[in-house]
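Handoff note, outgoing to incoming analyst
You'll be picking up this chain. Sequence as last confirmed:
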Amino acid sequence: MRLPALVATIPLLATPAAALDVVADTPVVHALVSSVLGEEGTATLLLDQGSDPHSFQLRPTQARDLETADIVFWVGEELTPWLGRTLQTVSGGVEEVALLHVPGVRVRELGEETDEDGHDHGHSHGHDHDHGALDAHAWLDPANAQRWLAAIAAELSERAPEKADVFAANAKTESARIDMMSASIAAKLAPIAGRPIVTFHDAYAYFADAYGVTVAGSIALGDAAAPGAKRLRALQDDIAEGGIACVFREPQHNATIAEAIAEDAGVGIGTLDPSGSTLEPGPGLYRAMMQGLAEEIARCVTEAS
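Most recent structure output, in case you need it:
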């Protein structure tokens, strides 16, 4: 008869909080989310390895991942318009964070010119003003990646406040690693400052501004725009005038044009992957991608000297 009394003295065990289910659009966003999330949930990457973020078609299983996600982190419609259209159709809606539009992120407009000191006219979100088309490749500025880490930690903490300290600590740790990465990149690129390069498309202004890289032009203006004959002739004329050290292709795009331009001009050829699409997904991908850009630029320009 004493059993009920004994049972009453057994402390009730707290129900463990459910792990967060998070979706990210690109390898870079997935890496940053994974570094903050740690062991407190699962981050699903939508973009297949090697795919172009600007044009991608979701599979039915990926659409279901969006429907069941606690939160979706993405760059924004400027980079992945296909995801924006899909999010509008998700039944019941889904919480989403467009990182390009997080307050404090320094953004620039496509085709924005740089000042004589090498800095562009980027501006931070957080106030009302008219824009042209935004350059979505903001993660190539390491300071923006660090702001994204803080925003991701804040959003995850709203979903799981009992884990806020963990998310904040993880974000701080990854931010410190990015500081070390950035110092290493700056040292690697310093010896080739002022040596102009040509990239496949207009995606590297954030990186160029952060590290003093001189981008003389791009083969294609937009992310998905094929270069016209007039533009190619003008670019070939510019290269023929001398001074261009290297031309860079990208793994997601046809390399024929870049290789032909480099061969005709007798300049170096290299490959840059600004979205990390060819790398193994995971928490360290962002730093590996940034270091890879620096190493490839330094290699090609040095060999062309």
